[in-house]
Design brief:
The complex is a heterodimer of chains A (416) and B (315). Chain A has helices at residues 2-26, 43-61, 84-96, 108-124, 158-171, 186-202, 223-232, 244-255, 272-276, 297-309, 319-334, 339-346, and strands at residues 30-36, 73-79, 101-104, 131-134, 151-153, 177-183, 207-214, 236-239, 262-264, 284-288, 350-352, 358-361, 368-369, 372-378, 392-399. Chain A is of the alpha/beta class and 416 residues long. Chain A folds into 2 domains: 2-156 and 301-369, Rossmann fold; 159-288 and 371-399, Rossmann fold. Chain B has one domain: ABC transporter involved in vitamin B12 uptake, BtuC (Orthogonal Bundle). The chains are: A alpha/beta (416), B mainly alpha (315).
C-alpha cells in the first residue's frame, strides 16, 4: 500500500507540474494536438506520422524563428488507439487544454467522427473554435456530403487517386483486361466501386475480368487468388490493400508469373518495400502525392535531416510537411492564431510545396488540389529509398493538379 | 484445367503446412488433454528466429537451428510453466497457454517491431520450377512440399517403429499405466511438447518467406489448426494428415471456383427477384464464404462424427 500511495503522490505531482508548464507555454506556443494511434496494431504508422510532424514543426517553423513574431509550434501527441470513441475523448481533452488545432490522418472512420464533433463544438462555442487538419484520411465523403468549414484535407482523396490511376491505365492501349481485388470492408469496396466507375467512363473497352474482395487480415496464403488472376489473363491489377495483405498479395501474384503491373494505394514503406525487394521491381506501382525520386534538392535535404533523427523511420507521409507549412503561412497571412481568421486564410491558398510544385486548397470543399504521381518500385535512380533497403519509388507519370475537375457536392457554410 | 492443376498444387502446399503445425498439436492435445493455444505462436517464433539467424548465417543455418531453438523454448515452457500450472487443473493450463499466445505476440512486436520483415527464400530456390499453361510454380513451394512429406514419414516411422514411439503411443491412451511400468511420463510429455513446438517452428521457418513474416502470422493460422486436429481425430497422425490436406484443398478450391447459390438455383430452375429480402444470401459466392468453410466442416464433424475422421476417442 505504502508504495502505491507514494506512486500516486508522485504521479499527481508530475501531472500538476506538467499542467503548470503546459499553462505557462500556452501563452506563447501554438499547440497542435496530434490525435492518431500511438499504441496497438497501427502504432507504426501513427508513430512515423508523429515523428514527421515533430521534425517538420521544428525545422520548418521553430528553427526559423516561429510564427507571428516568435511563437513556436508545439505538437501534442494524443493516442486514440485508432478508435473513433477514444478520439472523441482525446478531442475533449484537447479542448479543455485550450488547443485550437487538431491534426489526424489514420482511418476515415476516426476522421468522420472528429469532423462531426468539431463542427458541433464550433457551432456551440463560437469563442473557442477548432480547426481540423486531415493529412491522410481519404474517404471522399469528408469533402463532399460531410464537408464543413473547419475541416481541411491535405491528401488526395480516394476518388482523386483513382481518377489519376485510371488516367494512366486509360492511356496504356496494351491494357485490355483489369482485375480488381481488395479487402472486404468499406475502403476496399470504395476502391473497387471507384475503379469500375472511372474505367467504365474512360475506357469502356477495358474488360473487368475480376472484382473480388477477400477477408481483411485473415488470408494466410494469397496463392489461390494469384492463380485466379493469372488464369483470368489480366493485364493490370488494382488493389487498395495495405499492411500484410498487401505484401502477401503482391508476392503471390509475382510468384505465379503474372506479368502485369499491380496498381496499389499503399504498396510501399513500413517493411513492404524491403519485403518486395527485387521481386517487385517494375511490377508494384503506387499512386500518391509523394515525389520521392527524383527528389527536389529541398526534399532531399529534409529527408536526410529526418533520417538523422529517425534512422529507422521513413518519411512516408510527406504531405505532413505541406500541412505544417501551409498552417504557418495562413497564420502569418492572418496575422493572428484566431481559428476563423486562419481558416479563412487557408481556404483558397496557393502554395509551392517542398517538391517545388504548385498546390491549391480548393475553397469550395477544402480539398487540396495537387499533383499526383504514379510511381514504380525499383532500385534504379533511387536517391530517397524506403525501409533503408536501396529500393524505392520512382516517379513514372505525374497527373497535374489531379482531381481539379472532379465535382464536389459540398455546400460550405461559413461562419458569419 | 490450369485452375484445377494449380489449385491442387496450392492446396497441397497449404495442407502440408497445416499438417506440420497440427501434428505436434494433436500429439500434445491427446497426451496432456490441453488445447495449446500458443502452438501457432511457436510457428511465428520459428519464422522470426530464422529471419534473424539467416541475416547472419544464411537461410540453411536458420532452417536447422531455429526449430531447435523453438523446441528448447517449448520444452522449457512445459517444464517450468505448464507442469507447475497443471496442479490447478486443465482450465488453468488452458488459460496459461492462452496468455502465453498473447505474451509471445507482444514479445515478438517488442523485439522485431510491427512491420513485415524481409525474410526471403534462399537464392538457390528462387526460380520457377516449371511453367504450365503460362503459370509458374516456384521451386520454393516444391521444397516446402518435400520437407513436409519428409517430416510426415519421419514422424510415422518414429511413432510406429521405435521404442520411444511405443511409449508415446501408450502414454497417449494410458498415461498412468505407462508411469506404473516405470517410465518417466513427465519427461515424455516434455519431450513431446518440445518436439511439437520444434515442428511448429520448422513450419514457421519454411512458411515465413512464402507467406510473410509479421506479428499477425500466428493469429491467421492459429484457429484453423484446431479445426484440423478435431476433424482428423485426436492423437491420430494419419488423421491430422488427411484433415490438413482436406482443408487445404477445401480452401483453395473454394477461392478458385466462382460459383454462387444463384448458379445452383438457376440449375434447379428457381430464380429470385433482385429486391428479394434474402437476395444477399443467394448472391453469396463460393470465394466469399471460403474462410468459413473449415469451421462449417468442424461443426458438421462434431455433430456427426465426434471422434473425428480417424480418431479413437471422443473430443
Amino acid at each position: 500500500m505504502g508504495i502505491i500511495k507514494k506512486v500516486r503522490t508522485l504521479t499527481a505531482t508530475a501531472l500538476l507540474a506538467a499542467s503548470f508548464t503546459g499553462a505557462s507555454f500556452a501563452a506563447d506556443n501554438i499547440r497542435i494536438a496530434f490525435i492518431d494511434p500511438l499504441s496497438g496494431p497501427f502504432a507504426t504508422t501513427g508513430e512515423s506520422g508523429y515523428r514527421t510532424f515533430e521534425y517538420a514543426a521544428q525545422t520548418l517553423v521553430n528553427d526559423k524563428g516561429g510564427v507571428l513574431g516568435g511563437r513556436m509550434f508545439e505538437i501534442v501527441p494524443m493516442d486514440n488507439k485508432i478508435s473513433p470513441k477514444e478520439s472523441l475523448i482525446q478531442l475533449k481533452r484537447a479542448i479543455s487544454e485550450g488547443i485550437h488545432y487538431i491534426v489526424q490522418g489514420n482511418s476515415s472512420g476516426v476522421a468522420n467522427a472528429l469532423t462531426d464533433a468539431i463542427n458541433k463544438h464550433n457551432r456551440r462555442n463560437p469563442d473557442q473554435r477548432i480547426i481540423f487538419l486531415n493529412y491522410s484520411a481519404v474517404d471522399p465523403a469528408l469533402t463532399n456530403e460531410k464537408c464543413n468549414f473547419w475541416h481541411f484535407r491535405f491528401d488526395a482523396n480516394a476518388d482523386i487517386k483513382m481518377d489519376a490511376l485510371t488516367d494512366v491505365i486509360a492511356e496504356d492501349q496494351d491494357i485490355k483486361k483489369v482485375y480488381i481485388i481488395g479487402q472486404d470492408y468499406s475502403f476496399g469496396k470504395a476502391v473497387a466501386a471507384a475503379a469500375v466507375k472511372f474505367i467504365g467512363a474512360k475506357r469502356p473497352d477495358i474488360e473487368i475480368v475480376g472484382n473480388e474482395l477477400h477477408p481483411i487480415g485473415k488470408v494466410k496464403d494469397f496463392t489461390p487468388y494469384a492463380t485466379k488472376i493469372k488464369s483470368s489473363g489480366a493485364d493490370a491489377v488494382i488493389t487498395g490493400n495495405w499492411g500484410a495483405d498487401m505484401v502477401g498479395l503482391g508476392k503471390a501474384i509475382v510468384e505465379a508469373g503474372v506479368d502485369a503491373p499491380i496498381f496499389t494505394y499503399y504498396g510501399a514503406h513500413d517493411g513492404i518495400t524491403a519485403t518486395f525487394a527485387d521481386k517487385g521491381v517494375d511490377v508494384i506501382r503506387v499512386v500518391h502525392e509523394g515525389t520521392f525520386n527524383p527528389p527536389s534538392a529541398e526534399f532531399k535535404a529534409f529527408n536526410e535531416g529526418f533520417k538523422k533523427v529517425n534512422p529507422d523511420k521513413d518519411l512516408n507521409q510527406p504531405r505532413i510537411i505541406g500541412t505544417i507549412q501551409m498552417l504557418a503561412k495562413a497564420m502569418e497571412a492572418a496575422g493572428t492564431d484566431d481559428p476563423v481568421a486562419v481558416a479563412t486564410a487557408l481556404e483558397g491558398m496557393d502554395f509551392t510545396n517542398i517538391y517545388g510544385r504548385k498546390v491549391h486548397m480548393r475553397a469550395s470543399d477544402h480539398q487540396i488540389i495537387q499533383d499526383v504521381n504514379i510511381t514504380v518500385h525499383t532500385d534504379k535512380n533511387i536517391e530517397v529509398d524506403a525501409d533503408n533497403s536501396g529500393y524505392g519509388l520512382l516517379t513514372e507519370k505525374t497527373v497535374k493538379e489531379a482531381g481539379k475537375d472532379l465535382p464536389t457536392s459540398c455546400e460550405m457554410k461559413r461562419p458569419s | 484445367m490450369e485452375l484445377v492443376v494449380f489449385s491442387l498444387l496450392n492446396g497441397l502446399v497449404t495442407g502440408l503446412l497445416l499438417f506440420m503445425l497440427s501434428s505436434g498439436l494433436t500429439l500434445i492435445f491427446s497426451m496432456m488433454g490441453v488445447l495449446n493455444f500458443a502452438h501457432a505462436s511457436f510457428y511465428m517464433l520459428g519464422a522470426y528466429f530464422a529471419y534473424t539467424i539467416s541475416g547472419y548465417m544464411g537461410f540453411w543455418v536458420g532452417l536447422i537451428f531455429a526449430p531447435i531453438l523453438v523446441g528448447v523454448v517449448g520444452a522449457l515452457i512445459q517444464r517450468y510453466g505448464l507442469r507447475y500450472v497443471h496442479r490447478w487443473g486443465h482450465v488453468a493450463e488452458l488459460v496459461f497457454t492462452f496468455g502465453l499466445a498473447f505474451l509471445i505476440e507482444e514479445v515478438v512486436q517488442f523485439f522485431w517491431g510491427k512491420a513485415t520483415k524481409d525474410y526471403h527464400e534462399p537464392e538457390l530456390l528462387d526460380f520457377p520450377l516449371f511453367t504450365l499453361f503460362g503459370q509458374s510454380f516456384p521451386a520454393y513451394k516444391a521444397f516446402m512440399i518435400f520437407i513436409s512429406i519428409g517430416i510426415f514419414i519421419a514422424l510415422l516411422m518414429m511413432l510406429t517403429r521405435t521404442r520411444v514411439g511405443l511409449i508415446i503411443q501408450a502414454a497417449i491412451t494410458h498415461p498412468n499405466t505407462v508411469a506404473n511400468l516405470g517410465h518417466n511420463v513427465p519427461l515424455v510429455f516434455m519431450g513431446v511438447f518440445g518436439v511439437g513446438s520444434a515442428l511448429a517452428g520448422l513450419a514457421g521457418v519454411i512458411a515465413g518467406p512464402a507467406l510473410g513474416t509479421f506479428p499477425g502470422m500466428a493469429f491467421v493460422l492459429g484457429s484453423i489448426v484446431f479445426v484440423v486436429i478435431v476433424v482428423g481425430g485426436l492423437g491420430s497422425l494419419a488423421g491430422a494428415f488427411v484433415a490438413s490436406l482436406l482443408i487445404g484443398w477445401l480452401q483453395t478450391f473454394a477461392i478458385a471456383l466462382d460459383y454462387s447459390m444463384t448458379d445452383l438455383l438457376d440449375l434447379l430452375g428457381v430464380s429470385f427477384s433482385d429486391d428479394h429480402v434474402l437476395r444477399d444470401l443467394w448472391s453469396l459466392s463460393l470465394p466469399q464464404v471460403a474462410p468459413i468453410l473449415p469451421y462449417l466442416l468442424l461443426i458438421l464433424i462434431l455433430i456427426f462424427r465426434p471422434t473425428g475422421l480417424m480418431g479413437k476417442r471422443e473430443t
